[in-house]
């Protein structure tokens, strides 16, 4: 079963696609205090839950969502139509690193998708390329080490110790790239648990409803992910979303 379909099924009951509640998402977007007519960009938008919510909060804004998944973008288009914001949302099927636009943006998001650029530092450089000079804001969600990972956890995650920093180090990495922290949301254990139980549970439910080779593959993927979480990175890997302004 292809990874894109697994991800789509796993996020069916948690379309935010990050360990953040709806209330946390709204707080972050509200703190941006965007001007009338703001332009918003999401690099790695998935099903565009962040953009659709932003367009409901800022009724004069327009937005662009970029993702490589045709399935996710189709879901985004359907949800935007259902929420009545499709006329202000443009969706682009493209690698995030290859996207370009003629005008800068007032807010650029990349939440849980820094892998699309090869890590945090190149993600921040790409975000800067799209931001309106002086006043543009970024909303970046990234993992951090809640505690030093063991060798076993690093092996399970196929990660290196310096792939992430601790929370303070993560803030420093973003600020050393020429940003200042305006606001932040550190995901709680309850938010992580809700996200992971939704991810594994949605996929498991689909597998049970679709017996056969695809169902077996989906169930195996759900169980593997659950083991990676419960026996590996739970309470080790954290997640923080920072609202950033430009300093230089």
Provide a brief overview of the structure.
This protein has helices spanning 3-10, 22-31, 49-57, 70-83, 120-130, 151-157, 167-175, 189-209, 213-233; strands at 39-43, 62-67, 89-93, 107-111, 137-145, 179-186, 237-246. It is of the alpha/beta class.
Structural class label:
alpha/beta
CATH class: Alpha Beta
Using the 3D structure, state the CATH architecture: 3-Layer(aba) Sandwich
Principal-axis shape equals globular
Helix percentage range: 40-55%
CATH topology: Rossmann fold
Q: Uncertain spans, ≥5 residues at pLDDT below 50?
A: none
Number of strands: 7
Q: Termini, distance in Å?
A: 45 Å
Largest sheet: 7 strands, mixed
Q: Beta fraction of the residues?
A: 15-25%
Cα-atom radius of gyration: 18 Å
- Structurally, the number of domains stands at 1
- Number of contiguous helices: 9
- Integer average pLDDT: 96
CATH superfamily (homologous) name? Vaccinia Virus protein VP39
Q: Write out the strand line-up for the largest beta sheet, numbering strands in chain order.
A: 3-2-1-4-5-7-6
Order of helices and strands: HHEHEHEEHEHHEHHE
InterPro entries: Methyltranfer_dom, SAM-dependent_MTases_sf
Domain Methyltransferase: 37-138
Protein name: Methyltransferase domain-containing protein
Organism: Nonomuraea solani
Plain-language structure description:
The chain has a single domain, classed as Vaccinia Virus protein VP39 (Rossmann fold, 3-Layer(aba) Sandwich), CATH 3.40.50. 44% of the residues lie in helices and 19% in strands. The chain is built from nine helices and seven strands. Strands 3-2-1-4-5-7-6 form a seven-stranded mixed beta sheet, sandwiched between helices. The longest helix has 21 residues. The chain is globular and about 50 Å long. The termini are far apart.
């Amino acid at each position: 079963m292809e990874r894109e379909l697994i991800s789509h099924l796993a996020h069916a009951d948690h379309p935010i696609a990050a360990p953040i509640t709806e209330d946390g998402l709204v707080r972050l977007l509200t703190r941006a205090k965007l001007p009338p007519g703001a332009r918003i960009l999401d690099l790695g938008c998935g099903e565009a839950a962040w953009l659709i919510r932003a367009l409901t909060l800022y009724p004069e804004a327009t937005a662009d969502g970029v993702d490589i998944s045709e399935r996710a973008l189709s879901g985004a288009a359907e949800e935007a139509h259902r929420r009545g914001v499709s006329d202000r949302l443009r969706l682009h099927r493209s690698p995030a690193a290859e996207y370009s636009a003629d005008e800068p943006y007032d807010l650029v998001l990349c939440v849980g998708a820094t892998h699309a650029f090869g890590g945090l530092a190149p993600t921040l450089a790409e975000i800067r390329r799209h931001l309106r000079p002086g006043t543009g804001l970024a909303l970046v969600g990234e993992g951090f080490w809640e505690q030093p990972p063991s060798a076993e956890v690093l092996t399970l995650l196929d990660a290196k110790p310096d792939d992430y920093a601790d929370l303070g180090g993560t803030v420093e990495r973003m600020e050393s790239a020429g940003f200042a922290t305006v606001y932040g949301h550190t995901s709680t254990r309850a938010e992580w648990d809700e996200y992971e139980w939704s991810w594994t549970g949605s996929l498991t439910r689909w597998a049970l409803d679709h017996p056969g080779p695809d169902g077996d593959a989906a169930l195996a993927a759900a169980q593997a992910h659950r083991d990676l979480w419960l026996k590996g990175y739970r309470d080790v890997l954290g997640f923080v979303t920072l609202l950033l302004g430009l300093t230089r």
